[in-house]
Specification:
198 residues, mainly alpha, 13 helices, 0% strand, globular
């Protein structure tokens, strides 16, 4: 149990994870702790490990990848959004198709909060300002259609206001990917209105 580690070393979970990252057994320790967090449904450890995954490099994501879906189920919704926003802001204009936070977002099954979605699109806009095609940016935009399922329909007014055609410049391929995602959101919005009888 994870409590054994805390009691034995007289350290808090965050301190233990920080120490674990400095050993020769970082991979084994973090993965074992992730499995223990899932087994014992420890929300504090799950959140700290997800944060470590989202804020570090791609290597960390690959370590956690088999466990991410179950870790996410344990973490409180508000805490998950906090982790995602923090990681998105840290990446800024450097976000790409291999960024841990992007991979984490792309693996989610549930709809994220409006603030989180808006933060994601703000960082995406910074990528567009570079006005360059590259493999990592391609991967980012080609995944938008698949990611439509995690964006809330309440993000549509923001997208209407801040994502005009001219933002894409010469990057027509990226605009096409964005529009495909946008149309899925629009369709979902109309469906929800029909269900509610509005």
């Amino acid at each position: 149990p994870l409590k054994h580690w805390e009691t034995h070393f007289k350290k808090k979970p965050a301190q233990l994870i920080a120490l674990g990252e400095k050993t020769l057994f970082t991979h084994a320790l973090l993965v074992a702790w992730a499995m223990a967090a899932i087994k014992y449904k420890n929300a504090e450890w799950a959140a700290l490990l997800l944060e470590s995954c989202a804020l570090k490099n791609e290597k960390y994501y690959k370590w956690f990848e088999p466990h991410i879906y179950l870790l996410v189920q344990i973490v409180k919704k508000e805490k998950l959004q906090e982790i995602l926003i923090k990681a998105l802001k840290k990446e800024g204009a450097n976000i790409n198709g291999e960024s841990p936070v992007f991979l984490l977002l792309a693996s989610l099954k549930q709809i994220i909060e409006v603030e989180t979605a808006q933060t994601f699109f703000e960082q995406l806009k910074k990528v567009l300002k570079k006005q360059k095609h590259n493999y990592l940016a391609n991967r980012l935009f080609t995944n938008l259609k698949k990611m439509a399922k995690i964006f809330p329909v309440e993000i549509l007014p923001y997208l209407n206001e801040h994502w005009k055609s001219d933002i894409f410049g010469k990057l027509e391929k990226y605009e096409k990917s964005f529009n495909e995602m946008y149309h899925i959101l629009e369709f979902r919005y109309r469906m929800l209105k029909n269900i509610k009888g509005e």
